[in-house]
Amino acid sequence: MIALPSIAFEGFSGSAKGVTARRVGGRNILSVKSRPTGATTNAQVVRRASMSKISKSWKQLTNEQMREWDRLAEHTSGQSAFGQKAELTGMNLYIRLNVNRAMAGEALLSTAPESTVAVPNVEYTQIAVTPELVAITGIKHQASPYKLVVKMSAGQSAGISNGWSKTVIITPGIEDDWGEADVTTLYLKTIGVEPVPGQKVFVESYWMDTSTGFAGQPVQDSVIVTGEAPHGQRVKVTMNNLDPTEENNVSAIDVDFSTGAPVAQFNAVCLGHSNVASSIVHLDRELPAEVIGTGICLGRSNGPDGKIVAQSYMVWVRNYYGKADMTFAHRGGYYVANTECFGAGVMY
Amino acid sequence: MFNSTGNNFGAGQISFKDYQAENYVVLNSKFSFDPTNADYQACEQLEIYVPDLSIDRSAVGAVFIRFVEDQHWSWGDSVYDGGSILKSWVKDKNTIVIEKQPWFDQNGPLIIYILTLYPQLNQGVNTIKGTQQRLTVTTEGDYLRFGYETFVVVFEHWAFIHMLISGCTYAYRESLWEATLEELPADITADVPICGGGNQFHPECDGMAEAHIENRVFSNQRRVMGFWDTGHDPFVYAFLVRDNNA
């Protein structure tokens, strides 16, 4: 896209042979029709569909609601490639904010937010991209209603210095997990291929205020894909770490040893097994020696019988022939096989 | 110690004993509220507003909720106290949240016991292990017995206790119990729930009694009717703040 250099072109508009001339905000602009370079992603399809639906819903607003959006738009500037802020109409703003909200799973906002609110910039310490891990770490947490939007590119040649136009939305709005955003699964689902060591991945991230749809300034970064994950990874056990070749007696698990305190954080929905008052999970790897031991936690039954009995569970964590397992063994209270264990527990 | 600055469920001022580290807090409190009051009925979750905590959010912990219920029969009175546990977390520096469940709304007033350690995650360091000590529990005449996994883990400013009550000499079943917890620091005073025991009127939640711990003495008088029912093993689980915190 180029701005016309001369007043001689004043008044041109329309398209011819793939070139479009138009006048925007007092400026004449010529643009060449750009064509997408890659296949359309699922996220793009969803976004375009929601944009179309939201555009149509504008007409269903009351006149007062439209005026409120126009009023807000007067105080809101759009993006421009020329350092001059583009003007936004109320409808533009309505669509933009509601598309953002739809992306984060929020309902349509008919009434304009009362005012524009500054959205904080994303701050983090590291982006790690390996064939097995795609994660942003050390994120400065922002509480709800902020959600993190991450856009990433497929692996590019390491020589490319500007590839942010190739980024697509990986996370439509997630909360960081204690300063960490592990987007490995989302990256593979969206991009379709694992990152290759040596290639460069472009990343853009911003916070979105899901209550209003306003987004913060995108932070652009790039990272060279490495072969191995950085050291000092957080030690936790989730369903992703379970050995699928073994019988695991939980329907959900998230045990976190990264407390830096004299407790582990236990979360597991135990199902019980073989008429024994315990549930066992087998991991696909060993755990670090410092977290091997015995813990304890509380549980509350949550089965279909409606029981809500409080119980205590010992938790044995051990390494065994190159893998680890974890046993939730019932101790106090009336045993119910379907029990949700939660909360902090000492380890020794 | 500190007091709450408010709450959204009509509980009045709530007092806390606390130990606050850089990356976790241990809080002890006991308070009651009336589930028929309008504030409670209007709230989506129970929020307690407090002066600045050392942490600005936490992972989910557990607190105890208990109701008191007596039934009067021709042959005497019976106790059917019960309760369960609720999820709780630090939402921000000034707000402690407790999940709202309707289970016992008909059994008010309800008592909440916060005997909880609220940790943070992804702290760059793994869990620090403590030293488990078997808890020696002594009574005059040795009338109370406890399970193998009755133990304490003692730290400078707080202690964790887990007790499994396994038996009692028949003659003492209705008596006031006073047992000495030999390895527990003497600077702990708290009311703690005893979870478990069968509850004929509330089998969905079982029984819940209350014990008092002071100067190493564990005492309890009021117990649910089915306290000794087989397979309903009464237990205590509590993070207890020591009275040595300035």
- The succession of helices and strands of chain B, N to C, reads EEEEHEEEEEEEEEEEEEEEEEE
Order of helices and strands of chain A: EEEEHHHEEEEEHEEEEEEEEEE
Sequence of strands across the biggest β-sheet of chain A: 12-13-14-19-16-17-18-15
Biggest sheet statistics of chain B: 9 strands, antiparallel
Any low-confidence stretches of chain A, pLDDT <50, length ≥5?
1-9
Tell me the distance between the termini of chain B: 9 Å
Largest interface: A-B, 47 and 55 residues
Instruction: Determine the CATH topology of the largest domain in chain B.
Output: Adenovirus Type 5 Fiber Protein (Receptor Binding Domain)
- Please work out how many helical segments of chain A DSSP would assign: 4
The secondary structure category of chain A is: alpha+beta
Residue stretches of chain B low in confidence (pLDDT < 50, at least 5 long) are: none
Percentage of residues in strands of chain B: over 45%
Estimate percent helicity of chain B.
Answer: under 10%
Q: What is the straight-line distance between the termini of chain A? A: 65 Å
Output the strand order for the largest sheet of chain B.
1-3-4-11-6-9-10-5-2
Number of strands of chain B: 22
Q: Estimate percent helicity of chain A.
A: 10-25%
Rg for CA atoms of chain B: 18 Å
CATH architecture of the largest domain in chain B: Sandwich
